[in-house]
């Protein structure tokens, strides 16, 4: 069989596998947006069955043969760019997954699916003891898997971090985070010591969820989200899921007494969705049709949520929609009050409720705990107290129960260790992209002020979105900005913004 025939069969094989993955994604979306609770266990079994089939295909002898034939020095030059990159992507996945016994992977997937439902109940009851045995099993699985995968420099966490942010190591990340943490703590102390307070009581009014939904739709349309290839639904924990390039779904959560939560979670998830909708159609049906890393993906949501969505310029144009939809609630709230109200600095126990300035400190808590947990220096039983201590040290707050502490996030129920640091990385990437965008188009915020976001979308599409996984995170950053990742851009952005807001 010649190279081109092998490549054709490889592409068909991978596309079939991606179809299974799309079915899994649809079932998971349904599970999180309204599936009956009593059906959760059987749904977990179904997800486990399909996930095992995907895993089998990823690690099958047939896949290995395709990769062996197509990755030789003779065959690779005969492949087009997309097929060659697909081979490289699948080979990395094959080598990683083939080291895990299939039956162990199936057991893990079923456990993780069940654990999410248990986590949700445990969170509602603030009962860590209910979730602890499941988390202990998940951690044991992850430690076991790391031994199969292998690791370098005596840091097992590197192996998990690489799965969410390819190429990044703890040795590289620690100093980046250390600079950000140091500067953030200093700025936070200055802000809290300024004596200035924002009166948020004006926002505590009743907001009809259906009207909030109308505002969410308007904001997504303003951003350029294509509703012909997406939809918006309600959920407990907002997320975006991309079943394929033409089916990219946004979810949010509407609070009756504060419209800001749903508003900004919608803009955030919309940023994720724009990334997926902007990927080149040439990549459909390949493993390259998705965001290149969690950090780059998060940069797109954070850019839209914070750099654009929380800017004064954005609301100079869009505040009229708020006034139109909520005339009585905002009759006594000026544009300036609204702007300050969506940028208030108020340390919080809950990550997803954290303000823009303190958010990254929440990530530091999780990142440091994860490193210790994966490397075995702490155990699951230690987590509630360790969490409380780190929150007190970094943010100055101490949770009163596990629901507002160690149980607040869904991620660990799925074994997603290595995920959390990519949230802070997203902020760092976003600030550097914003810096480069302003360098390339010094008037871009004036365009935002007039509701014109086309040039912003074009810049992001041309520099980031269209490539999918064709370029690495570092290649995207250097290609878009002309320099390696530098956290100082985020530090400068935060200092400029909050110094002006709080008169520093």
What is shown here, in short?
This protein is 62% helix and 3% strand. With 504 residues, the chain is mainly α.
Q: What does this protein look like?
A:
It is a single chain. The chain is mainly α. The protein has two domains: 3-147; 171-501, Neurolysin, domain 3. The chain has 20 helices and three strands. It has helices at 3-33, 40-59, 61-70, 81-97, 102-125, 128-149, 157-164, 170-192, 209-223, 260-277, 294-308, 312-325, 335-341, 359-375, 383-394, 421-440, 444-449, 454-463, 473-481, 488-501; strands at residues 230-234, 240-244, 247-252. A three-stranded mixed sheet has the order 1-3-2. Helix 2 packs antiparallel against helix 5, helix 9 (209-223) packs antiparallel against helix 12 (312-325) and helix 10 packs across helix 11. The protein is globular and about 75 Å long. The model has no long low-confidence stretch (mean pLDDT 95).
